[in-house]
Amino acid sequence: MQLLSDRILNMAQSATLAMAAKARELKEEGKDIIGLSLGEPDFNTPDFIKDAAIQAINDNYNSYSPVDGYGDLKKAIITKFKRDNGLTYTPNQIVVSTGAKQSLANIAAVMTNKGDEVIMPCPYWVSYADLVKLNDGIPVEVKTTIDTDFKMTPAQLEAAITPKTKMIWFSSPCNPSGSIYSKDELRGLADVLVKHPNIYVVSDEIYEHINYVGGHASMAQFDDMYDRTITVNGVSKAFAMTGWRIGYIGAPEKIARACNKMQGQITSGANCIAQRATITALNESPSRVQYMIDEFKVRRDLILGLLNEIEGFKTNVPEGAFYVFPNISYFFGKTLKGQKINNASDFSLFLLAEALVATVDGESFGNPDCIRISYAASQEQIIEAMKRIKEVVS
């Protein structure tokens, strides 16, 4: 009898976590690794949020919370959706989970049947495809390029739709490309979807506030898409709360209740102290964390300037998040320091071994010609990392 399930044997390991693990191993060996692989702000959680957590501990919040989140947290989420996105939700449409990743896992589990197709504009976040596959769904990749800022067009969406299409999953701002769909661009996609009323949209907006162009748009803001859109968000990125593990959705009530049911059998409610701290985070104006976004923009401009000095790196200007996603196919077929570079994985591993810089290959994001570089690091680390990369590829 086979020990492990086919399900786990067929699941890919998270590429971002795998590269982070390799970088940690090399650090433990004494190597001076610069980690630009993980999507994690290098800022500390703001003091006003930490103070709220300390107060919650002193107030003896130590019991199980409701599966879908405290009522006053759901109220704060409803206020945030209205204030920042113009979206109106009721408490029964909100589910709080242990990170936005669990929110996505819940959605995949409650909505995907065997053979259902889920459209994913490439590049997409590494876990999307495997969450769908885990539930016997079929990811349908829609290829985009750096020349179009990695955005899917309405014509591409229309061409990807089949009678088996159940959902479309995408993020804006996008991990890994930093691309942002404008309101007009979302409207163009919505105009296609209104002709296919059985298709639902999963809009991952976790990087919403890390936006350098302003005017964040949500698919659910359109009246004809509101009842067919699940909006996913959380506090990990904008509030530097990755380890607090709080994500949430605003969704049609039937889908939200299904996610609540699923979560009740898997993890139940999210961490009670983190939930109390999140109430404070969401009730504050996003301007409280603007200093982080301002610094990320400085770093974006810095890393783009340095990458553009390295032959073989083709870049565009990401409008949000804290990643660049350069095309490095120039190096395919070349030999660097005795190593043949056949693909982005080879190149990413070469940079780790020779430049001691951790990045992530783009294949796991659905684009094998690129690598993802996080600039959620100090300016000094960025300058040193780009210097090392330039030296080993010159």
From TrEMBL:
Domain (Aminotransferase class I/classII large): residue spans on this chain: 31-389
CDD domains xrefs: AAT_like
Any GO BP annotation: amino acid metabolic process
Species the sequence originates in: Mariniflexile fucanivorans
EC numbers for this chain: 2.6.1.-
Coiled coil start-end: none
Cofactor: pyridoxal 5'-phosphate
Domain of life from the UniProt record: Bacteria
InterPro entries, alphabetized: Aminotransferase_I/II_large (IPR004839), AspAT/PAT-like (IPR050596), NHTrfase_class1_PyrdxlP-BS (IPR004838), PyrdxlP-dep_Trfase (IPR015424), PyrdxlP-dep_Trfase_major (IPR015421), PyrdxlP-dep_Trfase_small (IPR015422)
The protein's enzyme class: transferase
Name of the protein in question: Aminotransferase
